[in-house]
Write a structure and sequence with these properties.
This protein is α/β, with parallel strands linked by helices. The chain has one domain: TIM Barrel. The strands form four sheets. Strands 7-8-9-10-11-12 form a six-stranded parallel β-sheet. The chain has a two-stranded parallel sheet with strand order 1-6. The longest helix has 21 residues. The N and C termini lie close together (6 Å).
C-alpha cells in the first residue's frame, strides 16, 4: 500500500460548508454570535467532516477550509508588508460576481518588506492533526498568487519597496520558506500549494492581455518558477509538497481555459514539486498529450477526472477509459485520481449538494483499488 502522498484516491482540499455553520457565520457577522461561540461550532463541524472523510476511506483528511472566507485571502493577508485595500469592483468568474465574498475579496497590496509572521492557519492545521487518524493535509495558496496574472503586478506593489518582480519574488519565496518550516514543525507532512496563475498561462486570451500590458508570459513564468522553487527548496525529505493548478472555482464558475501544452515542460521538469493536481474534468483542459513531459520516477500527476462543479456522478467506465487514455503518455503507476478542484474555494461553495460531494469522493476511493494494487 502506498504510504507517501499523493494517494491513488486523493482530494484537493476544500469541502462544502454545512448549513449549520453557514447560519452560525451569518449570525456572527450580524453580531448575534461571539467569536468563541462561532469557534466552537466550527470545531464541531470540522470534527464531523474529518470523521466523514475517514469513514469513506480517504487516506488523507483536510479541515475542508471551513474556517476560511476564501482559499487564498485568509493566508496571504497575514504576511508582514501586505495591506488589504477595497477593490473598485469585485472580480467575476464567467459572469458570476464575487461580490458575495466581499470580505475575502479585498485587493492585497505590497507596501513593505515581505515577512512571514505566523498565521492562524497553523492552528487550523494543529486542530486537524489532533483530530484525524488519516494523513492530515494542509492547503495554502502558492506565493505567486500575491501577484496574480489576472492583473498588472505593478499596480499593487510599492515600486520603492520592490522595483522588480524578481526582487519581490525573492523575499516572498524566503517568507514562504519560513511558513513551510512552521507547518512542518507543527507536524505537517503533506502540504499543497494552490495555483491559478499557471492555468492562466494556458489561456491564449489571458496571455494576450499580459502581452498588451507589456509583459512576456514566458519571462513571467520563469520568474514564477524561481520564486516557487525558492519557497520549497529546503523542505525536509519526509515532507511532500504538491501543487494544484486551478482554472477558477467560484460557485461552480471558472476563469481560464486551454490545454497544458504551454506550461507542461516547465511544470514537470523545472518546478520541484512532488505531485501535480491537474484539472481534467472538461474540454477546457485539453488532451492528455502534455503529460508526456512528466519525467519517469517518483513524481505523480493527480488527474481531476471528477468534477466538483456539478452534482451528477461520473461513470466508472468513463473514468477508466480516460485513465487508459492518459496512460498512453505517462506510466499508470505515476497517476492518481481526485476531483478537479475543491468543492468550496469560497465560503459560498459550489452548486451541488453535500451528499453529491461525498458520493464523488467515495467513488474515487472505491475505484482506485481496482486500478492500482497499492491503493
Amino acid at each position: 500500500m502506498t504510504v507517501k502522498p499523493p494517494f491513488r484516491a486523493d482530494q484537493v482540499g476544500s469541502l462544502l460548508r454545512p448549513a449549520a455553520l453557514q447560519r452560525a457565520r451569518a449570525q456572527h457577522d450580524e453580531g448575534e454570535l461571539s467569536d468563541g461561540e462561532l469557534a466552537r461550532i466550527e470545531d464541531a463541524a470540522i470534527e464531523q467532516l474529518i470523521e466523514r472523510q475517514q469513514s469513506i476511506g480517504l487516506r488523507c483528511a483536510t479541515d475542508g477550509e471551513l474556517r476560511r472566507i476564501t482559499w487564498a485571502y485568509d493566508f496571504l493577508s497575514g504576511f508582514a508588508g501586505i495591506k488589504p485595500v477595497p477593490r473598485a469592483a469585485p472580480p467575476a468568474a464567467q459572469g458570476k460576481s464575487l461580490q458575495q465574498s466581499a470580505k475575502g475579496m479585498n485587493l492585497l497590496t505590497v507596501c513593505g518588506k515581505l515577512r512571514f509572521v505566523g498565521s492562524p492557519l497553523l492552528e487550523h492545521f494543529r486542530f486537524l492533526k489532533q483530530h484525524t487518524r488519516a494523513v492530515p493535509k494542509m492547503t495554502i495558496p502558492c506565493p505567486t498568487m500575491l501577484v496574480s496574472a489576472s492583473r498588472d503586478w505593478r499596480e499593487t506593489v510599492d515600486r520603492n519597496v520592490y522595483p522588480t518582480l524578481d526582487a519581490l519574488l525573492q523575499d516572498l519565496g524566503l517568507a514562504y520558506r519560513e511558513a513551510i518550516r512552521a507547518f512542518y514543525d507543527a507536524g505537517c507532512r503533506y502540504l499543497q500549494l494552490d495555483d491559478v496563475n499557471l492555468a492562466y498561462l494556458c489561456d491564449a486570451g489571458m496571455r494576450q492581455k499580459m502581452q498588451a500590458r507589456g509583459d512576456d508570459p514566458d519571462v513571467i513564468l520563469r520568474s514564477w518558477v524561481r520564486g516557487l522553487n525558492l519557497a520549497i527548496a529546503e523542505r525536509p525529505a519526509d515532507m511532500t509538497i504538491t501543487t494544484h493548478i486551478c482554472r477558477g472555482n467560484f460557485r461552480s464558475a471558472w476563469f481560464a481555459q486551454g490545454g497544458y501544452e504551454a506550461i507542461a515542460d516547465t511544470l514537470f521538469n523545472e518546478l520541484n514539486y512532488d505531485g501535480y493536481f491537474l484539472e481534467y474534468d472538461s474540454e477546457r483542459a485539453g488532451g492528455f498529450e502534455p503529460l508526456r513531459f512528466l519525467p519517469k520516477g517518483a513524481k505523480r500527476v493527480v488527474l481531476g477526472l471528477v468534477t466538483s462543479k456539478t452534482g451528477a456522478l461520473e461513470s466508472r467506465e468513463l473514468i477508466r477509459q480516460r485513465l487508459e487514455a492518459a496512460a498512453q503518455f505517462v506510466p499508470l503507476e505515476q497517476l492518481c485520481l481526485s476531483p478537479q478542484c475543491g468543492f468550496a474555494s469560497t465560503a459560498e461553495g459550489n452548486e451541488l449538494a453535500e451528499e453529491e460531494q461525498w458520493a464523488k469522493l467515495s467513488l474515487l476511493v472505491e475505484l482506485a483499488p481496482s486500478i492500482w494494487p497499492d491503493a
